[in-house]
């Protein structure tokens, strides 16, 4: 979600007033040091005609992010393409932006005048039942079956849909994202990564065994426990778009679980939603018990209705029904209508367990989404012979809603422009029957005066997420104590109000850095776990990117520059 919450560049710039004189930190079109046409031509030749030029302002489309479009884009197919692009960016002092599918709610993949690196064409899914790390100091030996690590190696451009189909065909599963159109090796994993199997196997970053990554200086590196272990640590939860460009990740796989569950609907029986909120407050209070049983899911909630599939990997329908029915009955006693229908493993596949946001928007706008998808007009650099398009470049299936077009005839503009996202990780310790008054107070505040359009309260903490607390990864440690990742979609500029409502139940005021308000006042604490952890991440950033070639707002290293009107500036003398 980019322009729905902001033009990140423009709004962030407006918030920053520096008392010191500023100078441009990067070269932009028109700058004295900006590459000549001949130099771009040379790069295009090096990249085998994989360099694209974004349209001018006069031919602007959503595909180029309106006022945040890159100047050029590299449609990389190999790590060496990215290496060449980053070496060129270093030499010419260019801003770099990185993206695959464009699923970035905080617009960290945007950058005015940048050289964009598009990883979507870096493909390949390879399975092994006996993975060995690259550059391991230990000699390879024959291992017993219980010592072997099953794994899958995934190219940066692959989507979870392809990965899951591949591993399922071999009787395996991977801890994937909830939306199968998300890339498997990019910002989802590097930012932490939650999904339908998180409760069973842990966060996405917990699954990583190894990365192939191109450093901001253009070096092609291996990052694992033996090679560049500090970079390996940072890439597991420290956020994408700043430490390097991952071109391949290797993650754990598991025997394919059953995915039985329950389809639950909770509705207010009366116009007054008081009894409904009583029932929902109780439901939140027993969420730790639900998590401990092994249930998680992707429901949606409004001021008078809650609905979604809740799944319990490797549990039988009998076990699920016997566990859940007393909870449903208690909510009925509190005055809500509750339907809890058993959902068998064969009813829907894991690939159909998705983030409900698209369905919610489709209900608001029932027209076929496909006809509204932006069409890229990014063209090959003029020196290349054929003219092609990058289908879906810089866009996602939600782009027409979340990137409102400047076209006054776009029916989505007025609605989308007023939507915003806030989130918090709700603590196990705050969700208990003794704390129901505080839970109820949160609901009353969130749903007062229509400020909340929709809430997405994902119960995907606990379980193995919590049990992995001793893993040395860069993930915000608040995840290990959280039960619900609660997203609130608001109408108008009310993000701070809903954050304040959720704060008392949160884990140390923490939020998931991939799905949050992009203007958090203390992003180091909220996204990364505090100053001490942030400084460790910053040390890795400075080691592998001393020139701040890769920069994104609210990312590690964001303090290096100020962003105004989409361009990066630095304090004179810095």
UniProtKB/TrEMBL annotation:
Chain segments carrying region Disordered: 129-148
Signal peptide: 1-21
Superkingdom to which the source organism belongs: Eukaryota
Family annotation (PROSITE patterns): FAD_PCMH (PS51387)
MF terms (GO), sorted A to Z: FAD binding; oxidoreductase activity
Domain FAD-binding PCMH-type: 66-256
Name of the protein: FAD-binding domain-containing protein
Organism: Aulographum hederae CBS 113979
Keywords: Oxidoreductase, Signal
InterPro entries per record: BBE, FAD-bd_PCMH, FAD-bd_PCMH-like_sf, FAD-bd_PCMH_sub2, FAD-linked_Oxidoreductases_BP, Oxid_FAD_bind_N
Family per record: Belongs to the oxygen-dependent FAD-linked oxidoreductase family.
């Amino acid at each position: 979600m980019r322009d729905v919450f902001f033009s990140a560049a423009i709004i962030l710039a407006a918030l920053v007033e520096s008392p010191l004189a500023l100078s441009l930190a990067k070269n932009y079109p028109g700058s004295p040091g900006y590459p000549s046409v001949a130099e771009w031509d040379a790069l295009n030749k090096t990249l085998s005609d994989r360099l694209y030029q974004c349209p001018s302002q006069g031919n602007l489309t959503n595909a180029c992010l309106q006022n945040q479009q890159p100047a050029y884009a590299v449609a990389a197919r190999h790590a060496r393409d990215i290496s060449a692009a980053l070496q060129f960016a270093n030499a010419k002092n260019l801003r770099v932006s990185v993206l695959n599918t464009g699923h970035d709610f905080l617009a960290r993949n945007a950058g005015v005048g940048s050289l964009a690196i598009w990883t979507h064409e870096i493909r390949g899914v390879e399975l092994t039942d006996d993975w060995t790390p690259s550059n391991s100091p230990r000699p390879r030996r024959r291992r017993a079956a219980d010592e072997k690590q099953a794994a899958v190696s995934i190219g940066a451009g692959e989507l979870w849909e392809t990965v899951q189909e591949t591993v399922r065909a071999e009787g395996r599963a991977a801890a994937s994202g909830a939306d199968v159109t998300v890339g498997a090796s990019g910002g989802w994993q590097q930012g932490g990564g939650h999904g339908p199997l998180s409760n069973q196997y842990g966060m996405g970053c917990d699954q990583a065994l190894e990365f192939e990554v191109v450093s901001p200086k253009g070096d092609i590196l291996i990052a694992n426990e033996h090679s560049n272990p500090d970079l390996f640590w940072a890439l597991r939860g420290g956020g994408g778009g700043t430490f390097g460009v991952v071109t391949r990740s290797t993650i754990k796989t598991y025997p394919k679980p059953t995915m039985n569950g329950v389809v639950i609907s909770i509705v207010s029986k009366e116009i007054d939603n008081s009894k409904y909120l009583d029932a929902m407050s109780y439901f939140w209070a027993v969420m730790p018990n639900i998590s401990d049983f092994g249930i998680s899911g992707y429901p949606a909630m409004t001021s008078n209705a809650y609905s979604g599939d809740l799944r319990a990997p490797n549990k039988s329908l009998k076990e699920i029904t016997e566990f859940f029915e007393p909870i449903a009955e208690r909510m009925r006693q509190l005055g809500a209508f509750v339907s809890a229908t058993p959902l068998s493993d064969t009813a829907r596949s894991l690939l159909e367990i998705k983030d409900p946001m698209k369905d919610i928007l489709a209900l608001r706008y029932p027209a076929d989404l496909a006809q509204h998808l932006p069409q890229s007009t990014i063209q090959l650099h003029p020196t290349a012979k054929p003219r092609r398009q990058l289908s879906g470049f810089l866009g996602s299936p939600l782009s027409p809603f979340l990137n409102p077009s400047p076209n006054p005839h776009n029916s989505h503009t007025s609605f989308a422009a007023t939507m915003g996202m806030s989130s918090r990780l709700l603590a196990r310790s705050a969700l208990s029957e003794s704390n129901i008054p505080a839970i109820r107070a949160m609901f009353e505040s969130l749903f007062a005066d229509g400020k909340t359009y929709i809430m997405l309260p994902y119960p995907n903490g606990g379980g193995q997420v919590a049990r992995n607390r001793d893993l040395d990864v860069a993930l915000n440690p608040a995840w290990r104590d959280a039960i619900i990742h609660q997203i609130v979609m608001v109408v108008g500029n009310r993000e701070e109000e809903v954050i304040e409502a959720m704060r008392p139940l949160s884990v140390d005021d923490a939020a998931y850095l991939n799905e949050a308000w992009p203007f958090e006042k203390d992003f180091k604490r909220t996204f990364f776990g505090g100053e001490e952890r942030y400084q460790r991440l910053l040390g890795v950033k400075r080691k592998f990117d001393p020139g701040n070639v890769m920069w994104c707002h609210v990312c590690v290293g964001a303090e290096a520059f100020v962003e105004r009107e989409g361009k990066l500036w630095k304090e004179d003398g810095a």
